[in-house]
Design brief:
Layout (H helix, E strand, L loop, with lengths): L1 H48 L2 H6 L1
């Protein structure tokens, strides 16, 4: 099964590589934006609730 998947991947690797990279880049950009917003909101909550040393541990 693993060798079949490896053959399948090699067969379509060249044709799909550009599309995969382009899609992954768009996903990475949107994922980074979501994480940045969540971190900003969590940072505000953590600053108002937790003391400094506890925040730096987590």
């Amino acid at each position: 099964m693993i060798s079949d998947m490896g053959y399948f991947f090699k067969l379509f690797q060249k044709e799909c590589l550009i599309g995969i990279l382009f899609t992954a880049q768009k996903i990475q950009i949107s994922f980074t934006n979501v994480v940045a917003m969540e971190n900003a909101e969590f940072g505000i909550t953590a600053n108002s609730i937790l003391p400094g040393p506890t925040r730096s541990i987590s």
